[in-house]
């Protein structure tokens, strides 16, 4: 099968290689000419035989919208576009309508696997009409892990990215739990080898997981993580998960707390804690710490 693939970064580049290893032809385009097989979207479309399948693997938001809009001008009725980035599911619905007006099919696909996907395969969650999914199925089969699990037609357009969004929300909460447990173990005087405690959990426990394996790997590289700054970004999908929970009146206390914990990681000097310190001083006379000598302790 032929596939056009747009976006050849860490994920897209490895996906191109895995698909080629499965015997398919991939024509790739990227703004970085050193990575690309062709030099424009027009050349990519011209290099494929109709009916075409083009997979978009670029950042969510404007970049994806602009790419899909451009493809709508270049592709023909009967072609199919796959959005494999981290787009919001509501964008999928708009893109599907936009392309359908030109007779072009649309499939959204949440992709998980990161830098390990080339060798291990990618977990795939896709949404769209059955006939469009069927057209892309050989590529899904090439990308997915070997075995009975790892891919699902999750539902109609938007379902793939919605499922991936929830997956990432769960991931936030699981990582936060491991992080909190690690910090408590590090703080406890009786525990003298936190890394080996984590390693012991890798077999025979209910929390054994790939995330735990990766935590042990990180601790093997830097036992107390002294080389890392305590800052964690969020890709946006954690926020979307919480927003969707509000829309559906579904309580998500663990996922929501893990998202807010990431926000707190970005504050070197928390404004909220300034107020808490001031209030503790006011009602209880508790000591407060000055900042750079510019503000001394508050006195009653």
Q: What this model shows, in words?
A:
It is a single chain. With 300 residues, this protein is α/β, with parallel strands linked by helices. The protein is 49% helix and 12% strand. It has twelve helices and seven strands. Helix 3 links the parallel strand 3 and strand 4. Helix 3 runs parallel beside helix 4 and helix 7 packs across helix 10.
The main pleated sheet reads as: 7 strands, mixed
The tally of structural domains comes to: 3
Find the count of extended strands (DSSP E, 2+ residues).
7
CATH superfamily of the largest domain: NAD(P)-binding Rossmann-like Domain
Q: Output mean pLDDT.
A: 91
List segments where confidence is low: pLDDT < 50 over at least 5 consecutive residues.
none
* Computed Rg: 24 Å
CATH topology (fold) name of the largest domain? Rossmann fold
Helix content estimate: 40-55%
| CATH architect. name of the largest domain | 3-Layer(aba) Sandwich
How are the strands of the biggest sheet laid out side by side? Answer: 2-1-3-4-5-6-7
How far from one another are the termini?
Answer: 77 Å
Describe the global form.
elongated
Number of helices: 12
CATH class term of the largest domain? Alpha Beta
- Could you spell the SSE succession in H and E letters? EHEHEHEHEHEHEHHHHHH
Structural class: alpha/beta
Residue fraction in strands: 5-15%
Organism: Streptomyces alkaliphilus
Protein name: Decarboxylating 6-phosphogluconate dehydrogenase
GO molecular function: NADP binding; phosphogluconate dehydrogenase (decarboxylating) activity
Pfam family, one: NAD_binding_2
């Amino acid at each position: 099968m032929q596939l056009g693939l747009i976006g050849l970064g860490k994920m897209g580049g490895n996906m191109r290689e895995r698909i080629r290893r499965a015997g398919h032809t991939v024509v790739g385009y990227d703004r970085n000419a050193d990575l690309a097989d062709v030099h424009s979207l027009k050349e990519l479309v011209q290099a494929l035989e109709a009916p075409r399948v083009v997979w978009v693997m670029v950042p969510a938001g404007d970049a994806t919208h602009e790419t899909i809009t451009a493809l709508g001008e270049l592709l023909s009725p009967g072609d199919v576009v796959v959005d494999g980035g981290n787009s919001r599911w509501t964008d999928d619905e708009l893109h599907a309508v936009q392309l359908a007006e030109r007779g072009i099919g649309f499939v959204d696909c949440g992709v998980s696997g990161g830098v390990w996907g080339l060798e291990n395969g990618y977990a795939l969650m896709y949404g769209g009409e059955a006939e469009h999914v069927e057209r892309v199925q050989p590529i899904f089969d090439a990308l997915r892990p070997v075995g009975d699990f790892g891919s699902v037609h999750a539902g109609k357009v938007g379902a793939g990215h919605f499922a991936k969004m929830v997956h990432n929300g769960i991931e936030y909460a699981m990582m936060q739990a491991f992080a909190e447990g690690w910090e408590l173990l590090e703080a406890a005087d009786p525990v003298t080898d936190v890394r080996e405690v984590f390693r012991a959990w890798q077999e025979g426990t209910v929390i054994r997981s790939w995330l735990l394996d990766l935590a042990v790997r990180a601790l093997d590289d830097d036992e107390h993580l002294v080389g890392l700054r305590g800052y964690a970004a969020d890709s946006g999908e954690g926020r979307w998960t919480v927003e969707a929970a509000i829309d559906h009146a579904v309580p998500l206390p663990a996922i929501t707390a893990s998202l807010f914990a990431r926000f707190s990681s970005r504050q070197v000097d928390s404004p909220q804690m300034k107020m808490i310190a001031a209030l503790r001083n006011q009602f209880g006379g508790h000591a407060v710490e000055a900042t750079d000598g510019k503000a001394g302790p508050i006195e009653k």
